[in-house]
């Protein structure tokens, strides 16, 4: 679990600081998580439509 959350925050930092793409990091709901998983985390990119 610690490694998963550490990598999730590394991805978050990379997206925001190096690619300038805003993201939302979070835990999926029970309906959204992978079958059989205790929990599933996500990183969602927010792209602007120009």
Q: How would you concisely characterize the structure shown here?
A:
This protein is of the alpha+beta class and 50 residues long.
Class from helix and strand fractions: alpha+beta
What is the overall shape? flat
Order of helices and strands: HEE
Strand content: 15-25%
Helicity level, as a percent range?
25-40%
Low-confidence stretches: none
Question: Total helix count?
Answer: 1
**Quantity of strands, as a count:** 2
Largest sheet: 2 strands, antiparallel
Termini gap: 38 Å
The pLDDT mean sits at 91
- Radius of gyration over C-alpha positions, nearest whole angstrom: 13 Å
How is this structure best described in words?
The model has no long low-confidence stretch (mean pLDDT 91). 34% of the residues lie in helices and 20% in strands. The chain has a two-stranded antiparallel sheet. The protein has one helix at residues 2-18; strands at 23-27, 41-45. It contains one helix and two strands; from the N terminus they run H-E-E. The chain is of the alpha+beta class and 50 residues long.
Keywords:
single chain; 50 residues; alpha+beta; two-stranded antiparallel sheet; 1 helix; 34% helix
What layout of secondary structure does this protein have?
Blueprint: H1 2-18, E1 23-27, E2 41-45
Antiparallel strand pairs: 1-2
